[in-house]
TrEMBL record, chain A:
This is 1,2-phenylacetyl-CoA epoxidase subunit PaaC. Keywords: Oxidoreductase. It comes from Winogradskyella rapida. SUPFAM superfamilies: Ferritin-like (SSF47240). The keyword Oxidoreductase applies. InterPro entries: Aromatic_CoA_ox/epox, Ferritin-like, Ferritin-like_SF, PaaA_PaaC, PaaC. It comes from the Bacteria. GO terms for molecular function: phenylacetyl-CoA 1,2-epoxidase activity. Coiled coil: none annotated. Its EC number is 1.14.13.149.
TrEMBL record, chain B:
InterPro entries: Fe-S_Maturation_MIP18, FSCA_dom_sf, MIP18-like, PaaD-like, Zn_ribbon_PaaD. Gene3D superfamilies: Fe-S cluster assembly (FSCA). Residues 15-73 form the MIP18 family-like domain. Residues 113-162 form the PaaD zinc beta ribbon domain. Signal peptide: none annotated. This is 1,2-phenylacetyl-CoA epoxidase subunit PaaD. It comes from Winogradskyella rapida. PANTHER family: 1,2-PHENYLACETYL-COA EPOXIDASE, SUBUNIT D-RELATED (PTHR42831:SF3), FE-S PROTEIN MATURATION AUXILIARY FACTOR YITW (PTHR42831). The gene is paaD.
Length: 250, 165
C-alpha cells in the first residue's frame, strides 16, 4: 500500500466530505426553496467527488476496506479536513462565506491537480472542476449580494468573513504526505496557490464593499487531525447509522 | 484517452430503449452517457460515465442497461468511468429535441451559458412559448444538471439543462 498516496487522497477528500455534510444539514432548512436546493445540490456534487476519491483510496489500501468504511468508520482524530469546512451553519451569510472561502481554494487546487502524474486523480479533477466552477459562481454571487446589500445583510456577511478568516491560512499548509506527493509529481504544491487565492478573495470582497480582515493570526490543526469542537457533533450525526447498526449495508 | 464512443451496431437499438430515470423522455444513448458497449466472449462490456459526480441516477441506469441486455439475451458487465468527463456536447440533436418537447430548455454553448449565469442576459428560450424573455431564478434546479428559469412572457417556470464543457 502506498501510504503517502492514501493519506494524500484523504487530505483532499475529507474537505469535501465534511463540507458536504455541513451543507446537507440544510436539507429542508434552507432560507428559501432555491437556496435550500442549491446547497443540497452542491453537497451532492461534493459527495459524488468524495466517492471517487474514497473508491480510489480503498483500492490503494488493498484490504477489505470499502469507500463507506473510510467515510464512516474513522475517529475524530483520523479525519484530516481543514478547520474551515467543519465550521457550523450559524446563519446563511456564514454558510455562504465558508463556501466561498473554500470554493476559491478548491478551484485553484483542482486546476493544479489536473497536471498530476496520477491519472485517476486527473480524471477526478477534470470531472470535479466543472462542478466546482458552478459552486464558486453561486457563492461569489451571494458574497456580493449580501455584502453590497442591506445594512443588516452587510453586517452579517462582514461578521462571517471576519469570523472565518482565521481558518483560511491552513488551506496552504503541507503535511509530510503532501510534501512527498509533490516531490513525486502527484500532489499539488498548495503553498504556491496562496497568492492567487487572496488576490481572488480580496477582489470579490472589495466588489462586495466588504472590509478585508487584517488579522494576521491563523488557526491550524485540522490537517493533523486536531479539530475544533464542532467536528465531533458533525461526526456523531454522520456516523449515527453505523454506530446504531454496526456493519449495516445499503 | 478517446472521446469517441465505441458501441457495437447490434446493441444500439437495445440501449436506445433505456431511458434516464430522471428525464424519462431521454434515452441514455441520446444523453451520451454510454461510452462503450462491445460484445467480448458472449459478454457485453459496457462503460458509462456520469453527467455529474454525484448523479444518483447512475446506479439505476447501470441496472436498467443490465436488464435490457439480459432481455435481449446478453450478460453484461457495467463499468463506471470518469474520463473523459461528460459534456453537454454529447447530447444528440434528437436528445435536445426530446428535452425541449419535455419542457426542459436544452443547453446553450458555453459562452452563452456563462453570460446567462453571470450577467443574467436573456438568452435561454422558454420551452413552453418560445420567448427569450426569460430570467434565471436559481443556478441549481431539481437535479444537479439543471438550473431554474422563469419565462416573463408566459410566466411558466422551467428547467434549463446547464452547459458542461
Amino acid at each position: 500500500m502506498n501510504n503517502n498516496l492514501y493519506k494524500y487522497i484523504l487530505g483532499i477528500a475529507d474537505n469535501s466530505l465534511i463540507l458536504g455534510q455541513r451543507l446537507g444539514e440544510l436539507t429542508g432548512h434552507g432560507p428559501s426553496l432555491e437556496t435550500d436546493i442549491a446547497c443540497t445540490n452542491i453537497s451532492l456534487d461534493l459527495f459524488g467527488q468524495v466517492r471517487s476519491y474514497f473508491q480510489y483510496a480503498a483500492k490503494i489500501a488493498g484490504d477489505q476496506r470499502t469507500e463507506d468504511d473510510i467515510a464512516m468508520l474513522r475517529k475524530e482524530r483520523e479525519y484530516v479536513n481543514v478547520l474551515l469546512v467543519e465550521q457550523p451553519n450559524r446563519n446563511f451569510a456564514y454558510t455562504m462565506a465558508r463556501q466561498f472561502l473554500f470554493d476559491v481554494y478548491h478551484l485553484l487546487f483542482l486546476q493544479e491537480l489536473q497536471k498530476s502524474k496520477d491519472l485517476t486523480l486527473v480524471a477526478i479533477a477534470n470531472k470535479s472542476i466543472k462542478e466546482v466552477s458552478y459552486h464558486l459562481r453561486f457563492s461569489t454571487d451571494w458574497i456580493k449580494r449580501l455584502g453590497d446589500g442591506t445594512e443588516e445583510s452587510k453586517a452579517k456577511m462582514q461578521d462571517a468573513i471576519d469570523g472565518l478568516w482565521t481558518y483560511t491560512d491552513e488551506l496552504f499548509h503541507q503535511t509530510e504526505a503532501d510534501k512527498v506527493m509533490v516531490q513525486e509529481g502527484i500532489g499539488v504544491d498548495v503553498t504556491g496557490l496562496k497568492e492567487a487565492y487572496y488576490e481572488k478573495v480580496n477582489a470579490v470582497l472589495e466588489e462586495a464593499t466588504l472590509e478585508i480582515p487584517e488579522s494576521k493570526w491563523f488557526q491550524k490543526g485540522g490537517k493533523q487531525g486536531i479539530h475544533t469542537e464542532h467536528l465531533g457533533y458533525l461526526l456523531a450525526e454522520l456516523q449515527y447509522m453505523q454506530s446504531a447498526y454496526p456493519n449495516m449495508e445499503w | 484517452m478517446t472521446t469517441e464512443q465505441n458501441i457495437d451496431d447490434i446493441l444500439i437499438p437495445i440501449l436506445e430503449k433505456v431511458s434516464d430515470p430522471e428525464i424519462p423522455v431521454l434515452s441514455i444513448m441520446d444523453m451520451g452517457v454510454v461510452r462503450k458497449a462491445v460484445i467480448e466472449n458472449k459478454m457485453v462490456k459496457v462503460q458509462i460515465t456520469p453527467t455529474y459526480s454525484g448523479c444518483p441516477a447512475m446506479d439505476v441506469i447501470g441496472d436498467d442497461i443490465k436488464a435490457a441486455l439480459k432481455t435481449a439475451g446478453y450478460d453484461s458487465e457495467i463499468e463506471l468511468i470518469l474520463a473523459p468527463a461528460w459534456t453537454t456536447d454529447w447530447i444528440t440533436p434528437r436528445g435536445r429535441k426530446a428535452l425541449e418537447d419535455y419542457g426542459i430548455a436544452a443547453p446553450l454553448d458555453a459562452e452563452a451559458d456563462k453570460s446567462v449565469l453571470l450577467e443574467g442576459k436573456k438568452m435561454v428560450k422558454c420551452p413552453q412559448c418560445g420567448s427569450t424573455n426569460t430570467r434565471l431564478v436559481s443556478q441549481f434546479g431539481s437535479t444537479a444538471c439543471k438550473a431554474q428559469f422563469q419565462c416573463d412572457d408566459c410566466q411558466e417556470p422551467f428547467d434549463y439543462f446547464k452547459c458542461l464543457k
